[in-house]
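Hey Z.,

So I finally got round to the C2G thing we talked about over coffee. Here's the setup:
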Amino acid sequence: MKKVITYGTFDLLHWGHVHLLERAKSLGDYLIVAISTDEFNRIKHKEAYHSYEHRKYILEAIKYVDEVIPETNWEQKKTDVEKYGIDTFVMGDDWKGQFDFLKDQCEVIYLPRTEGISTSQIKNDLNITEDSKN
Ligand code: C2G
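And the result:
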């Protein structure tokens, strides 16, 4: 069984997120999504509208997602890849090159971001102020 993992906040889940998850799942048989906890989001200088529990609940309803785990720090990726027996690590290409250190453990793939949608655009369009892109 080919296992894939990806990381993110996935706040105000939108079609760009789903397109990423769909493509990530198509690279294997089992997709794990590590979603940032509210505490880790603060470290990322992000403030999610939905709580960790609600973002997890929503992601678990997505047919491409097989398992959701917490992302609590920047350092957990290497241990996650070993712990979960990951074959492929996937991120949107806004992160291109940032996780190449994982290449000695697994395949690292950066997928093109979906243009025309983002959580910050949704917040701006709805006049929800925020101090960080996401
Ligand atoms: N994404 C995308 N297209 C968009 C918006 C997001 O492909 N229009 C992708 C991002 O590239 C990322 C994933 O969807 O791979 C989740 O996006 P965010 O929730 O914004 O993730 P981020 O805050 O960048 O967290 O350790 C990694 C970090 O946790 C990544």
